[in-house]
Amino acid sequence: MTISHTRRGLLIILSSPSGAGKSTLANRLMGWDDTLSFSVSATTRAPRKGEVDGREYYFRTKPEFQQMVKNDEMLEHAEVFGNLYGSPKAPVEAAISQGRDVLFDIDWQGGQQIVNSVLKNAVVSVFILPPSIPELARRLTERGQDSAEVIAGRMTKSQSEISHWAEYDYVLVNDDIDACEARLKTILQAERLKRTRRPSLLEHVRKLDQEFKDLTT
Ligand code: ADP
Ligand code: 5GP
After folding, report:
1. pTM of the full structure
2. Helices (H), 48-176
């Protein structure tokens, strides 16, 4: 796919309770459209097995993270499950000014901060719900990357995360992963086609007007 140079990029925010499938969906979307840019967050949480610094996250100490916040380097930041998480501002600004769409995997607090920022017109927010709570617990356990204690903590927080569902533009139930991925792609395609996001349409309509005039002369 090609990057649009005639519009600013979109900020696509994916949120869900932990384990509902947003990282899986984000990876699938990134694999589908190589013009998409993923916002790699900074976090003070310890890396999970297989996670690479700079790929899944920028793993930072608490003082390093706090310094980034102090330097105004974060677009948004929040405490989630006792750790600090934040989206570095510079790569996002660079991407959207080139017409690239940016994908965020962040919680509702981060989503709210971006929606309330100067970038709000570029935001498309999507909340992912699990089909059921037992299935959410099963996915968290099956992922096999967190201790039983961490999983229990995440399950406890799920209800409050889910309570923010109505603050999002779109809500998807991630029952079948392929169907959910297809719906997410539909959302992105439709959002890209919005009139307000296509300044080049004006030029096209002017051309059509000129062609009407040419017909009558
Ligand atoms: P999150 O990023 O929201 O914490 P993940 O994307 O890591 O969630 O998904 C949690 C686990 O559930 C992973 O093992 C993933 O493969 C699995 N999973 C995601 N979506 C589905 C689905 N629709 N059906 C079954 N398993 C799924
Ligand atoms: P995990 O530790 O499972 O990778 O992520 C835990 C939670 O933190 C998820 O809900 C994830 O979306 C959220 N998160 C990840 N990065 C950010 C970020 O930069 N900002 C905010 N606000 N939340 C984030």
Report:
1. 0.94
2. 62-70, 89-97, 108-115, 133-143, 148-162
**Region of poorest pLDDT, from 83-92, 157-166, 191-200:** 191-200
Q: Is 177 within the bounds of a domain?
A: yes
Residue 2: what pLDDT?
61
Distance in angstroms (rounded) separating the CA atoms of residues 99 and 126: 20
Query: Which of ligand 1's atoms lies nearest the C-alpha of 144?
Result: 14
Q: Which ligand has its closest atom nearest to the C-alpha of 178?
A: 1
Q: What percent of the chain lies above the pLDDT cut of 90?
A: 85
**Distance from residue 84's CA to the centre of ligand 1 (Å):** 22
Residue 45 lies in a domain: yes
Q: Does residue 5 form part of some domain?
A: no
Mean pLDDT computed over 9-34: 96
Q: Is residue 2 part of a domain?
A: no
Q: How far is it, in rounded angstroms, from Cα 75 to Cα 119?
A: 10
pLDDT attached to residue 1: 66
CB-ligand 1 contact for 142 (6 Å cutoff): yes
User: Which structural domain, as residue segments, surrounds residue 167?
Assistant: 11-215
